[in-house]
Amino acid sequence: MAMNFNAKEEVDGQVPGSSGVGGVGVGVSVAGGAGVKSRKPDNTAFKQQRLPAWQPILTAGTVLPAFFVIGLIFIPIGIGIFVTSNNIREYEIDYTGTEPGSPCHKCLNVSWNNTPSCTCTIHFTLDQPFESNVFMYYGLSNFYQNHRRYVKSRDDSQLNGDNNSLHHPSKECEPYRTSGDKPIAPCGAIANSMFNDTLTLYRIERNETKYTPIPLTKQGIAWWTDKNVKFRNPSGATKNLTVLFQGTAKPVNWPKPVYELDTDVDNNGFINEDFIVWMRTAALPTFRKLYRLIERPDTLRPTLPAGNYSLEIAYNYPVHSFDGRKRMILSTISWMGGKNPFLGIAYITVGSICFFLGVVLLIIHHKYGNRNNSADIPN
């Protein structure tokens, strides 16, 4: 018994008292190995696992009210979000032109730098008016902007107006870094694949004889931080963008250089809002990006009254080669943004499941909760 006790203390790194032959033997052994450090954890609350802890006790009195409260909160919120989403007006036109009867079928195999542009016109009817401001989007399908090499193919320093990066782009832009012996501005695969269809909207009046163009606002479509912080034109002694971008080449698939994207100096070059919107890559292969704003003229008239309309398309962007599709979307918005019924459905589903489980567990608790099982336990 003395040997066993002293052996345990040797493992703990403590020298036992001299009691008997076993005690003396163990004491010598420990003295001989005095250089060996003890592996015993420090006597602290953390290392000895004595910290105070809280563990919930799941009882019917705590679980059932939680289920009912979650259900009663989530279901009304979900119904409100779902109804708000359904009240948003939205109209979509697919103008890819894959169908032989489509007006844009003749433009299906258009190339990037097709000159002149292939033009097609699609007529449509709005059965209900669009009352508030209308947002005009273009949508693409089967276009993977989330590919890793595609997302990295850009030079943020160049886009931020750095003069050195303008003429010496990042290697991440390969193979769209240079064209001949000139650097490409803007470089990279994202900029090279910029959407360049032109969409024009007309309202048809007077027995389809008068075509009234609808004013489309092209500024205010990009994020404020992108427009004023992330994207800047190169700096220099002049504000002439032709001079500032001298010595650079346009992207391979662009019909014109970046300093000719717009005649408005506040919407040209790297701060062109169509370009900025495109450079914010989408997470999913089917996406939409804001193209134009249609502002309500006054409070007495709807922005787009019910009636006949015409969409004229300068078809420049090829998607048939990768089985993609193109769409034009007209949409109003609400306090929660654009049309998105998923969030409301998710709230209603979760709330309904919680409420249903609360009812089921309440029935089970009422039927079996008070049963005395002590009679089944043998003495």
Measured between the Cα atoms of the first and last residue, the distance is 38 Å
Order of helices and strands: HHHEEEHHHEEHEEHHHEEEH
Tell me about the largest β-sheet. Answer: 4 strands, antiparallel
Structural class: alpha+beta
Question: Helix proportion of residues, in percent?
Answer: 25-40%
Kindly state the number of beta strands. Answer: 10
Radius of gyration: 35 Å
Low-confidence stretches: 1-32
Task: Give the count of helical stretches.
Answer: 11
Strand order, biggest sheet? Answer: 1-10-3-8
* General shape: flat
Oligomer: single chain
What is the percentage of strand-forming residues? 15-25%
- The averaged pLDDT comes out at 87
What characteristics describe this protein?
379 residues, alpha+beta, four-stranded antiparallel β-sheet, disordered N terminus
Q: Quick recap of the structure?
A:
It is built from eleven helices and ten strands. The protein has 379 residues and is α+β, with helices and mostly antiparallel strands. The strands form three sheets. It has a four-stranded antiparallel β-sheet with strand order 1-10-3-8.
Structure commentary:
It is flat, with a radius of gyration of 35 Å. Helix content is 30%, strand content 16%. The strands form 3 sheets. Strands 1-10-3-8 form a 4-stranded antiparallel sheet. With 379 residues, it is α+β, with helices and mostly antiparallel strands. It is built from 11 helices and 10 strands. The two termini are 38 Å apart. Helix 1 packs parallel to helix 2 and helix 3 (60-86) runs antiparallel to helix 11.
